[in-house]
Write a structure and sequence with these properties.
Length: 436
């Protein structure tokens, strides 16, 4: 059994949905995870924002526009009147639910229920289409098995036992459909795995079912060795270690959700990145394999802020770093990069929503300076320190480009540099030319 996940653009139109149906057949009893149709989650977020602000006409107008879109999708996707009526009834129930929120104050629980409707609609429409084609598909409602623990981590034991039982109850099924992203929390309320969480859903399912392979289908043929938006001649990376993929995902490679690889890695299940528009392309396979001594790819993470804390007393101040880290922990802000010296410490963050309060607290320990509009550029590969040729190549490629920070040695798979956003494209191109 394989787990196949298709993102929002892959099911973003009736034509794309039909194409996905062709890709998943013959079924071989695979589990197919679907995201919401592209644009749907944004509309649901917009509806929630209007409701929070008490702008009922704005919410109503957005609901009406989204419903009109789905009426058009049903008409274009389904050929028979009988199945169109069934699909319209299923979608109609969802829009009735959305409209019920027009008459009450929106809560966080209500918002999460609203956000869950996109995946419920995409799977309902796909099941109707497969039914029309005569495919024996079974819907596995994610809200019936996908559950998180109190800290937000997946309850793997619960998920595995419930999901296997549901599959065993459908021995004649050719395809199992389920929703990505959505789940229930530890108290039974509707929740989600955050944006991009459909990748995480697929990885969790693959892990609990001990799947042969997890396939992540998008609109690009694997993970490229640089950002094709800025660098010409990029190519897909054929193989990545799980650690390399995790570094690239965290540092800006949007094709893969950063959390996705962990369940697959722990259960040693290969993850393959494939292109719905070029299904014959080999894509990228991610798995646990021995280090191969190669550089693989470059990624960039935008909207970074650098914070420097300088203290002449640092050399003699026991616990200085602990106090700095506790400041960021208290404000629930993660640190991306760090560099230290005897008189100060520099860190970078990608979330500046609590920056003012963080800076105010850090001033208790030293002089604080802030630099915005920075970019982390990450070079990923087998970068063990014994391979002495890689590190100088990276720095030589960036000759003439001011580097604010360098991070190396935290893992064997990554060397990162912090540069100004205005130098980003020049740095990406220079690295590609020198390294590849």
């Amino acid at each position: 059994m394989k787990v196949l996940k298709f993102g929002g653009t892959s099911v973003g139109s009736p034509e794309r949905m039909k194409h996905v149906a062709d890709l998943i057949l013959p079924g071989n009893r695979n589990v197919v995870v679907l995201s919401a149709m592209s644009g749907t989650t944004n509309s649901l977020v917009e509806i929630s924002e209007y409701l929070y602000k008490g702008n009922i006409p704005g919410a109503q107008e957005t609901i009406n526009a989204l419903e009109s879109k789905y009426i058009g999708v049903i008409s274009a996707l389904l050929a028979t009147e009988e199945v169109r009526i069934k699909a319209s009834e299923r979608i109609g129930h969802i829009f009735a639910l959305l409209r019920s929120y027009l008459n009450e104050a929106l809560t966080e629980a209500g918002e999460k229920e609203i956000l869950a409707q996109g995946e419920l609609m995409s799977t309902a429409l796909m099941q109707c289409y497969l039914e029309e084609k005569g495919v024996k598909s079974v819907l596995l409602p994610a809200l019936d098995y996908m559950r998180t623990l109190e800290g937000g981590e997946p309850d793997m034991q619960h998920i595995g036992s419930r999901l296997r039982r549901m599959i065993d109850l459908a021995p004649a099924a050719e395809i199992f459909l389920t929703q990505g992203y959505i789940c229930r929390n530890n108290v039974g309320g509707i929740d989600n795995l955050r944006r991009g969480g459909s990748d995480y859903t697929a990885s969790i399912i693959g892990a609990v079912l001990d799947a042969e392979e997890i396939q992540i289908w998008t609109d690009i043929d694997g993970m490229h060795n640089n950002d094709p938006r800025y660098v010409e001649g990029t190519r897909p990376v054929s193989e990545l270690h799980f650690e390399e993929a995790a570094e690239l995902a965290y540092f800006g490679a949007k094709i893969l959700h950063p959390s996705c690889v962990l369940p697959a890695k722990l259960h040693n299940i290969p993850v393959r990145l494939l292109n719905t528009l070029q299904p014959e392309a080999k894509g990228t396979v991610i798995y646990n394999f021995p280090p191969d001594g190669k550089l693989k790819a470059i990624a960039a993470k935008d909207n970074i802020t650098a914070i420097k804390i300088k203290s002449g007393r640092m050399l003699l101040a026991y616990g200085f770093l602990q106090k700095v880290f506790e400041t960021f922990e208290n404000h629930r802000t993660s640190i991306d990069m760090m560099a230290t010296s005897e008189v100060g410490v520099s860190v970078s963050v990608d979330d500046d929503s609590r920056l003012a309060a963080i800076v105010d607290d850090l001033k208790n320990f030293g002089t604080v300076s802030v630099e915005r509009d920075m970019v982390i550029i990450c070079v990923v590969g087998d970068l063990s320190w014994e391979h002495c040729s890689f590190q100088p190549k990276v720095l030589q490629a960036l000759e003439g480009i001011p580097i604010r920070m360098i991070s190396y040695g935290g893992s064997n798979y990554n060397i990162s540099v912090l540069v100004r956003n205005s130098d980003k494209i020049r740095a990406l191109r220079a690295l590609s030319e020198k390294l590849f």
